[in-house]
Amino acid sequence: MDTARVAAEVLGMPWDKCEIVWGNTAHSMPWSSQQDGSQTTHAHTRANYAAGLDAKRKLQEIAARELGGAPEAYDVGNGRVYHRGNPAQGITFAKAAERAVALGGKYDGHEVSPQVNSMTKASSQALAGQGLMGVAKDELPYKGSTWSFAAAFAEVEVDLETGQYTILDYLPVADVGTVLHPRSLGAQLHGGGIQGFGHARTQNIVYDPHYGKLVSRRLYQNKPPTILDMPLEMQWDALNTPDPQNPVGSKGIGETAALVGSAAVLCAIENAIGNRCVVRTPVTPERILEALETEGKRPILLTTYA
Amino acid sequence: MAVIRDVMPAFELLQPNSITEAQKLLEHHGQEAWVLAGGLDSFDWLKDRIKKPQAVVDLSGIEELKGVRATGDGIEIGAMTTLTEVVNNPIIRQKYGLLAQAAELVASPQIRNQGTLGGNVSQDARCWYYRAGWPCYRAGGNICYADTPESRNREHAILHADRCVAVNQSDSAPALIALDAKFVMRTPKGERVVDAEDYFIGPNIDITRLHILRPGDLLTAIRLPSAWADAKFYFEKIRDRNSWDFPLLNVASAMMVSGNRIERIRVAVNAVAARPLRLKAVEDAVRGKSPSATTGEMAGALAVHGAVPLQFNAYKIPLMRNLVKRAIGGVEEARWAS
Predict the structure, then answer these.
(1) Is domain A149-303 annotated with CATH 3.30.365.10?
(2) Torsion angle of alpha carbons A225, A231, A233, A238, nearest 10°?
(3) Given this structure, which CATH class describes domain A2-127?
């Protein structure tokens, strides 16, 4: 939802006056791009930026038609399109929308760029005639590829007699470009990190190799982490360095958060017991105990399964 | 008729409201009856459609099976008392804290709210081959899928295996053995009381059950004698995660110490064999000695004597050794090497 803030910002619209209608074919709303590959923020902010610019351009053109002058002489803000030199000279978005419906064509969605996706085209045709419509294909410049990065620090305490360990502290630091929404980013960094703790510690899909059957069928056998497995406090931070491939400088976080959580815990265990027991996950108490008991001499891969 | 696979098999639901009535129903239906306590174990079996009893005897309406009562010598806990009630009971917390500790480590709060003490001690094996409905020894077949060179058996037995290598994973059971609890049953022949350690059986006695209850028998209460009230207790459970997990191993001890000498002691472990094991040899060896790390180390080494690991559970040997050591000598803080 936060990626729609970009369209609101382009249109100078206060966020609390915005209504987000999610992609829903029952309401003739188009599909969005897939939310995967940790690219959602990157792709959706660009798409919202492109559609926002298209709406802004149409508002400027309508204002120029109504009030004279060049479209570029007009700006948008607070639900109005107004003359840059004389802000009192302008019309409301509502009035502009009424004009868009009267004008038809590209203004109310009857005509769209041939570049847009056929699903978007079908959607704009179904919704045409109800107001001013911003609809565009993301043709913003793009060079190379966009990746997010994170580094994380974990502190663990290992019980040398039982192999049980506690994660005491966790701090992920992300390079995700401009931070779009700090609370949401923090939740993703910690939520993903917790998923990563599960990968490192307890989650295991176990097959019997002779019969080829899954034996860890249940969530008490293939164990996601619980709240009691979490550090009492976790911090996070982000570099907040704008990414040049995105109009608002933002990148995704997604999978990066989970991977770094898993890796940090494994590194901490290795550092704590100085041993190779972490070559396979999950690192359960028995792996630590066996590694300690055999001082790393026993081939761990033969005594544990993953 | 179409086979419905996504619901429980049909059964007759019987809801008695007295112990006498329940025992009669169990006797009447014999092998076809299924005892339903909190349902945590039962519904796994029923919803997987692996066990298909004709009659389910639901004990939840029997008030006389619930609650904690004082007796002439200690307390009596009804078999249908929930684990949460056991954990929160002031007398148990104050005098028999070992049981409160053990019960509080069972599964998750939701499961403890619904699960009962009688159900916890009577739960079936969690061997994942057996639980998935594989036709193994315990299920009446003639093979153990968990004991082959390739079997995935990290949770299985290191002691007293006999064809079947499943373990008992009750957390309350070793605590009750350490407290010298008595299990009260109602059988077709009347009331029967046994020592806690005698309630549990291994595959050499009966490979299809983890306890002595036979068709027609009902566990009604567990009595804690005052002899072990206020003893020095130790309980520890090792598991992969800190909630909603069965033990990889657990240990319980009750000690009476006088002048730095162990006067009386009871020690039990679970999840190493098909029944929770009382470690009598350890008790005999440490009696009269100081409850120190040295005594603990000797006890730990003695405890694992005769243990035989499977392919993937050798870790249980040092784990049992270390837990028994702690149960006697306590936990030593690690020292920095430099």
Answers:
(1) yes
(2) -70
(3) alpha beta
